[in-house]
Amino acid sequence: MAAPLSKKFTLNDLRAARAAGSKTPVLTCYDYTTARHMQAAGVPVLLVGDSAANVILGYDSTLPISLNFLIEITAAVRRGAPLAMIMGDLPFGSYGGDVGRGFDSAANMVKLSGCDCVKLEVGPTHTTLVNELAGAGVAVVAHLGLRPQSVSLLGGYRYQGRTAAEANALVAMAIEMQQAGAAAILLEAVPPEVSQRVVERTGVPVIGCGAGPSCHASVIVTQDGLGLTPHRPRFAPALRDESGRDPAAAINQAFASYVRQVAGGEYPGAEHQYEMLPEEKIRFLKMQ
Ligand code: KIV
Questions:
Q1: pLDDT beneath 70, residues of the chain
Q2: What confidence score (pLDDT) does residue 2 get?
């Protein structure tokens, strides 16, 4: 068992981990209760991703989720894991097209949720925004590679950096984001040669999500790892307890056991009931 977090994990710890060559685990998290468990399990960085649109709200893309909803759940995760580094996420439509609006969205995310850094899916048009935010003291995580908010433009959820030209453009964009002031880079669904080159050519922590072993940190959507989503991406590990049990099976069995207990009249039992004061109970029963 990993030790619970005992002190606040910060961007400096992520940078130190990069320098020391140690790898940092990152999980997505969308609620207070799970955040408490993750902090207790020693997960140092929690991403409150817009993947909440899929795994919490049931949409088939990340596009519909609102900034207010993400702020609300990020604040909940913050309360559950005060010692973890919390990464807020800006949703589709909250930062494209207008630097001022993007700045306000990021500032609201930081102010209202208490997150430690803000992630944005970036392209060439976001360099000014990243620069403005960094100038104002916001730790920006620049998300490159597969950018689910651009699913229409990318033509589907396809891994990125397939051709030499695409890979080259990705490395160039990572360098541009670092120069603009990004505090970290997140690479989603790119071949390992591309992430290795980004790691070599930049000096900030690189967080991989299906991006091979060279990245300094790894993130997965927790529900994929737990086997709770219909499809586990090829890069997501099957998370198990120490006896190798499947958590999704355990949860399904627990629900089925509740159904059996209620339907069979075992629940609620005497141990689940509240008691009236004895004399009040007598008086009450006489009233009827
Ligand atoms: O929103 C999210 O969870 C993400 C990860 C998949 C990297 O962006």
A1: 1
A2: 83
Domain that holds residue 267: 248-287
Report the alpha-carbon distance of residue 272 to residue 54 in Å, rounded: 36
Q: Is the CB of 224 under 6 A from ligand 1?
A: no
Measured from the Cα of 51, ligand 1's closest atom is 1
Residue 34 CA to ligand 1 center (angstroms) comes to 17
Q: Which residues are within 8 A (CB) of 26 and not within 5 positions of it... i.e. 6 or more apart?
A: 43, 44, 45, 46, 47, 87, 207, 217, 218, 219
The confidence score (pLDDT) of residue 288 equals 72
What is the separation, in whole angstroms, between the first and last Cα of the chain?
A: 56
Which of the residues 121, 188, 271, 275 is marked catalytic? 188
CB 178 within 8 A of CB 167: no
pLDDT tens for each residue of 237-248? 999 999 999 999
The reply to whether 101 falls in a domain is yes
pTM summary value: 0.96
Same domain, 86 and 173: yes
167 and 268 housed in the same domain: no
Residue 188 appears among annotated catalytic residues: yes
281 in the same domain as 191? no
